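Usage

Read records sequentially. Each one opens with the input sequence:
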Amino acid sequence: MSQGTRSQSKRPAQGSPGQSDEEMEPPLHDLLLAKVESMIHGLESKLDSKLDEKFGALFPQLKAELKAELKTELKDEVVAELKAELLPLLRAELAKDTQTRAASNDEAVVNKVHHLESVVESQARQARSANLICHGLAEDNTENVSARVAALFDSNSGPPAVVSEARRLGAPSATRTKPRPVLISFSGVAAKHAALKHSKALRQRQIFLDADLTPQQQRIRVSMRPHYVALKTAGKQPFWREERLFVREGDRVREHMPVPGPPPAAAPGAAAAPGAATAGPSQAAPSSPGRADSYAEAFDGDSTPLLIGSSYVPPAGSRQLQTVDLTSRFTGLCAEVVAARAQGNVILAGDFNARHAVAGELDAAFQTLEAGIREAAAANSMPARTGRHQRKARADAPFFDSECRQLKRDVRARARCGGDPAEVRALERAYHNTVRHKRRAHRLAQLRRLLDDLHSDPRAFWKRLKSQQSDIPEQLKPVQLWAGYLKRVANLQLPLIAELPHLSFPVQPSAPVAHVDALNAPISLGEVLAGLKSLHNGRATGVQGLPAELFRYAKDERAPGMPPPENVLAPALVAVLNSAFVAGQVPPSVNGSLITPVHKKGSKLDMLNYRPIAVTEPIMRFCVLAVVYQI
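and closes with the structure output:
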């Protein structure tokens, strides 16, 4: 009976309604203990009921003994069963919890190490912010390094470059062929910037200034070195600003953001220019005319000026030059242009010899003049921007460079010509991936610069944030709104005065007739030359995209010992402008302007709070100046 009772009492233990899986929540050991206690309590209650049914009140002592014995046996069996089934689960849960805690501890340690490294790097950069490294300073055994360095930056103009300390880097060696670099510590960042103003003059003496880089910055520069060599081999002008690589394109400087992937391979035999590895913040190479509105440097210095000419008769006193008409036999190669310029020839750029102006054909005269200037600029590798094909400004996306634009053009061209859809999709994926990578790299670079400025130069950080200018509101971006508003402003009719008020002072006599006739005199060559000299370099271009430099520097090369050559465009301009002056009108192609609304004050949603700034064509600027000179 004891065994039967025991077997009957085990069935509830095996088939007892246990808790659902949702109730088995951590901590696991607390739930297991509670479950065991509930199971034992249920077995005891069932055991009591069974014993009451069998024995009743006849054998109370035997009932108590059997109850104690069965309780012990059932408890041992339940514990053994729980150990066999739940002990592996408990061990697995414990191992998982231990692994999770170890991983979280490792991540915390790694984050802490990274934070400490960033703090150390920031402090190192801050400590080196007023330092420079000088390369190429000749070395002498009896030298006073501090005195020699101070003599390099001796200047009476500008803030002084106070040198706190200067010492050679590295141990002296008899086998060393190059002088050891000099570590220069200045009194502050302002003194370092004052010293950098002398870098251009020092480069002419083969002395180069570079920033004092931390080991992390040096590793970044070493990793970017293949890109520097590739840009140098491609004929571009790369330079370093600390560990960041920049490229000068005309008068525009952009940071070179390499596309993720393997570094570019250097050309065979390509080597960097001397001192290129130590190019400092102000060590950029002189700019070359890369854009149409940046020709001033090319003509102000000893560079070759723009050669342009026409079939007019040269002014009196100028030397006779042989002309070469490129419009009829120019093959597109530069060899003919170079040979013609070497022989002292004037290159003809179209037939704008004022015959249209003499015939009164103003539109044709201005069109041939514009075409001639463009052709001459293109023949001398100085293309002018065409107003009819203006590229949309990407001020909001500076990472969208020439590579992205070329990929976009390839995708559109392949889609238009009905290419293979698979190839079109592949090109689209390549285009979007390139734009995505460049955008991510640009944003990371911006964030890095902001963090660097925040730790090293808070003033530059806040200046960068305050320099962010807001765009025109979305409600005012439609061009039609501005067109109507500007048209109303231009056609504003002021009330006419019926009669002049009575004057209490004597009226001055009218101007003599001779002076009035002088105002109607034709525009002279001297007035046009004076107007050309009054044009400014580096100004924005008008709708046609012709910068003022193309008009100012249309001269022949200056021979040694000879007076400055005459402007070869001036006679053609005299004929064209005189025709417009006599007709009393100018063609719409040169009478337009680019208008930019500039917000002054008040609400940005009100057009009355904007000042329209108009940029006219250069030819109209010196035309007005020529008329002013007559007055």
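Summary fields computed downstream for this record:
- Residues 1-26, 266-338, 340-359, 386-393 have pLDDT under 50 and may be disordered.
- Residues 2-13+25-115 form one domain.
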